[in-house]
Amino acid sequence: MNRQTIGIILNGVTGRMGYRQHLVRSILAIRDEGGLALADGSRIQLRPVLVGRNKDKLQRIAFLHGIDEYTTDLDEALADPGFDIYADFLLTNARVPALRKAMAAGKALYSEKPTAETHAEAAELAEEVENAGLHNGVVHDKLYLPGLLKLKRLVDSGFFGRVLSVRGEFGYWVFEGDWQSSQRPSWNYRAEDGGGIVVDMFPHWNYVFEHLFGSVRSVYAHTATHIPQRVDEQNRTYDTTADDAAYAIFEVGDGTVVQMNSSWCVRVNREELVEFQVDGTHASAVVGLFNGHVQPREITPRPVWNPDLADTHDYRSDWAPVPDNAEYGNGFRAQWEEYLRDYIAGTPHRFDFASAARGVLLAERALESDRTGRRIDLGGKTEAR
Ligand SMILES: NC(=O)c1ccc[n+]([C@@H]2O[C@H](COP(=O)([O-])OP(=O)(O)OC[C@H]3O[C@@H](n4cnc5c(N)ncnc54)[C@H](O)[C@@H]3O)[C@@H](O)[C@H]2O)c1
């Protein structure tokens, strides 16, 4: 590819993810550094156009960040051959028609997760984009975070021996909106608007488990709507209809058992908002989004159960920190850079719409497990290609 700029249509930049992570921390950060640095030392500049429903909001963002182009007409942006990539950060339930339009216009696609609300639709999209031969990628941001990069390094080095089990704890208290405003949008708590913690988080857990430990083979999930009413952005009380917590067990890879708690109704007593403890035959690790600690078998203490004596051993002090050994930037930007380099090189992006569809499948099967009270076999369908 021989060119100086890549045109990117950014749809949904007034939203939480679209504005902060994709526009400001990724696209504008790259633009403001003079463009995307390539291996040969050259740079390709980015040409963003903002798309949304509210012209005033777009104008404000464009003015604030020195962006020349914005429009409320997606078709107009898609018709412009100067734009190569369509990026979608809309609410999930508005995404599929927009992605299909972009596909029809022959654009490369980059999408927030999940790509669709149902596995049927997500799988259809994956097939359509593959058949059309369009470059495609889906946000798998957690894999680009320092903690999970360190964990991947440990797994790949064989540090754990055989990985027996993983315990994941994700969550924090999301205020109800009455006496303190909620720190998440209200649609997250309405099933009819695409909300729910399973739909939100299980697509992440699918690619995290797949990438680190192998494909998810089965899921058992118990969900709850712990808080029955919340107060929305307009100060109106509404009934919550979506799950705000999910307690799940997965069989992953060659028999690794993963327990994962996901909740917007827990108070944090951890070092980070998500933590995974991995226990293997040779070693264990506890990692969060940024940091990690390990304990190899050679320095594993020998606790003896004795309820009559207070245990004075400081178990936490037996763990050693995992060093950074690299510089880590913003995870969203790191994936954007990889996606753009793949686009320029004409090589498929490793986290594609098929991977996105597997994530939606896991969320769907988890909800089925909750409804039926059964463990659901995924029949190898979340197999990575
Ligand atoms: N990767 C992650 O860690 C992560 C985290 C949170 C959310 N997300 C995903 O990002 C997406 C956006 O979530 P958010 O929290 O930023 O939501 P948000 O409500 O803050 O933003 C949604 C955006 O979509 C636009 N929009 C809403 N309804 C629309 C419609 N009918 N037509 C066109 N545009 C519409 C809004 O104007 C806004 O720009 C969701 O798909 C969500 O699953 C990903």
Automatic annotation (TrEMBL):
Q: Does the keyword Oxidoreductase apply?
A: yes
Looking at the keywords, is Oxidoreductase present? yes
Give the domain of life. Answer: Bacteria
The record's listing under InterPro entries reads: Gfo/Idh/MocA_oxidrdct_glycsds, GFO_IDH_MocA-like_dom, NAD(P)-bd_dom_sf
Tell me any Pfam family this protein matches: GFO_IDH_MocA_C3
Which keywords does this chain's UniProt record carry? Oxidoreductase
Q: Which residues form the GFO/IDH/MocA-like oxidoreductase domain?
A: 149-285
* SUPFAM superfamilies documented for this protein: Glyceraldehyde-3-phosphate dehydrogenase-like, C-terminal domain, NAD(P)-binding Rossmann-fold domains
Q: What is this protein called?
A: Gfo/Idh/MocA family oxidoreductase
Q: Which organism is it from?
A: Nocardiopsis coralli
